[in-house]
Amino acid sequence: xxxxxxxxYFDTEHLDDNIGQRTMRGGALTAVAxxxxxxxxxxxxxxxVRLLLPEEFGLVGMVASVTGFLAMFKxxxxxxxxxxxxxxSHAQVSMLFWVNLGFSALIMLMxxxxxxxxxxxxxxxxxxxxxxxxxxAFLFGGLTxxxxxxxxxxxxxxxxxxxxxxxxIISVLAAVWLAWAGxxxxxxxxxxxxxxxxTAAGVWLMCSWRPGLWTRGEEIKSLLGFGGNxxxxxxxxxxxxxxxxxxxxxxxxxxxxxxxxxxYEIFMIPLSLINTPVSAVAIPALSRLTxxxxxxxxxxxxxxxKVLMIAMPLGALLVGTSxxxxxxxxxxxxxxxxxxxxxxxxxxFVQVVGNSTGWLFITQDRTREMMIWxxxxxxxxxxxxxxxxPWGALGVAAAYSLMDFFIRTPLLLWYVGRRGPVSAGDVxxxxxxxxxxxxxxxxxxxxMRLVFPIENMIIGxxxxxxxxxxxxxxxxxxxxxxxxxxxxAWGLSRRMIVRRRKx
Length: 503
Prior knowledge:
The chain is mainly alpha-helical. The protein is 82% helix and 0% strand. The mean pLDDT is 86.
């Protein structure tokens, strides 16, 4: 429990002295939490699919198609506004809290109002109470937004990781118990609501700040504008992320769409494992450094450097062993997905860089430009889908990756680097050596498979991972940028270990 006074949650000057170590430690804690959640998610799936029928999952899935869309608007981008602002007051955050809570209540009522429409559309009477039950999670979400944002503002990533893991574990235990007790699909409904409720209770317990009353005349217009632009970006990005599924399903049917969706899920695993924990710490850290362009630029490049160290070899592994990965993860019936994964995997080499530009837009208070870029990016993605569509799911994947590599990412780097501490040239100079290592790993994997054919896919993946590690370390060692990255990562790791032992 925190002994902080109310104003301590808004002051961030004390974070500047050791912000590098805080960022590294926060990234490690967030990554561990992500790993724990992934393990719990897999374990819960294994158990629940044996206790519940596919039909019962389908019922909740029907409602999730609506609640997933509405969830984009649950915080209106106002959590990032609280995290990003160099100076923010108790009165401003209090007003943002009431805005979030009021809008969450509105979304809850809208979801309830949509329940009869869902019953009619799917011709399924049970959806009425399922929809009403799931809508309760939105209200708990409104209670969570600003408290969690203040914890992130103070870079208290350990508290956030503890809350997230606890909420997932308790909600999964509740769902398993209810499913075992015969509560059918209500176990899945309870899982969503319990997770939201435990998260809300956790942030209120860990963050002692309490909102004040609504104060008329307090300036929040710029904060609402910041959040509105960020929400606008998420809105247009949502359609870009789903248009390919719509087109493939419409013109090639459910079989091709199933292959494409599973391939995309596997493609997103390394990106999610990297981007989610890194973004969680990069945005608060960079937000604290906006007053010093030199420190800001150095911090951004230092974080991106560590991302590239991991992402480039993983991208090569995904492209070079996609057939083995499909056989191990999905099974023989999904072999056609391997070519789609290999095509999508090409985009990893640039997409990790493109994702990092979101840190720049948000921390530099350029969310209006971010929203404009979202419209441009959506148009480019839609065009690539249409170009590749005549060749089916594989054509869509290939067109998207090539567009991302040769058009979208270069244009994005120019757009974000026009002003601010970080230029496109800074990013290219950092990216090229790591991309070269990724290509070396891919060449080594291809060569290994040609010279030493391996029939057992599990052994093949194990050998491939060893080859990836050896070639990566060797590749990093022969360039000045790579040697500096290795040395920096080793030094940060040692300092964290020493600090933990002293504690």
